[in-house]
Amino acid sequence: MSAAHARNIRCRALRMVHAAKLGHPGGDLSCADILATLYFRVLRIDPSNPAWPERDRFVMSKGHCSGALYATLAEAGYFPREWLDNYMRPLSPLNGHPDRNKVPGVETNTGALGHGLPVAVGMARGAQIMGSGWRTFVLVGDGELQEGSNWEAAMSAAQFKLERLTVIVDRNRLQQGAGTEETVALERLADRWKAFGWAVREIDGHDIAALAETLSAIPFESGRPSCVIARTHKGRGVSFMEDRVEWHHRVPSDAELAKALQELGGAE
């Protein structure tokens, strides 16, 4: 059912951005399949008990794509779907960037890019020290990898042999205003992660079966943190949004929303 969940996440995220007149729809759509796979096929979680000590931890480092995260958390049952109607409204818990003090299921506040992976490294190191069995997953944007704090964290993760830590790169090749390779080139990205001591796999980030198989196979190598480079498309599933840099933060009109929802098939 992960494909249906991904469709629902996309449709609800678009409705949220349209209603709020704010958001980052392109990135919401590019990571929907990853989130659906994590929450409905991989993570060991209990939405009825968000503070369960033995839960797997997930950090949404690309916190500006909060629409997709909130839609996922509602789909998984962390809070009522009606909350989504208040996205970014005054006093709403669903801020533009996730806040762990306001939203069940959010592990740490994110949105200032380059912070999520360092926090996730600390979480994984804590589990290692305590001898706990839970795992830590973190989703980063590819443009975000131009932040040096990520590479300091990557070195630390390899140093401490954090084999229960997995980073997933949403590799849609677009960031605000331009392509990643035009801004600060990242390729050869897999080789960079390998050079920092990580075990790396590259997959189609919209192939849910491949995502589930890959994320269920971690750690890829004993004693090494794992990196999944998920090749994705910004605006995935909507013809006029796909691979278009302007949809990083553009808000769809009424007509564009209707067309997008028609192409996606609508949420259940």
Structure description:
By secondary structure, the chain is α/β, with parallel strands linked by helices. It has a single domain (2-264), classed as 3-Layer(aba) Sandwich (Rossmann fold), CATH 3.40.50.970. 39% of the residues lie in helices and 12% in strands. A five-stranded parallel β-sheet has the order 1-2-3-7-6, sandwiched between helices. Strands 4-5 form a two-stranded antiparallel ribbon. Helix 6 (148-159) links the parallel strand 2 and strand 3. Helix 3 (32-42) runs parallel beside helix 4 (66-76).
Question: TL;DR of this structure?
Answer:
This protein has 268 residues and is α/β, with parallel strands linked by helices.
Question: Which helices and strands appear, and what pairs or packs with what?
Answer:
Blueprint: H1 2-20, H2 25-30, H3 32-42, E1 57-60, H4 66-76, H5 116-130, E2 136-141, H6 148-159, E3 165-171, E4 174-175, E5 178-179, H7 180-183, H8 189-195, E6 199-204, H9 208-215, E7 226-231, H10 254-264
Parallel strand pairs: 1-2, 2-3, 3-7, 6-7
Antiparallel strand pairs: 4-5
Helix pairs in contact: 1-3, 1-4, 1-10, 3-4, 3-9, 5-6
Shape: globular
Radius of gyration over C-alpha positions, nearest whole angstrom: 17 Å
Main sheet properties: 5 strands, parallel
How many distinct folded domains? 1
Oligomer: single chain
Second CATH tier, the architecture: 3-Layer(aba) Sandwich
Tally of individual helices: 10
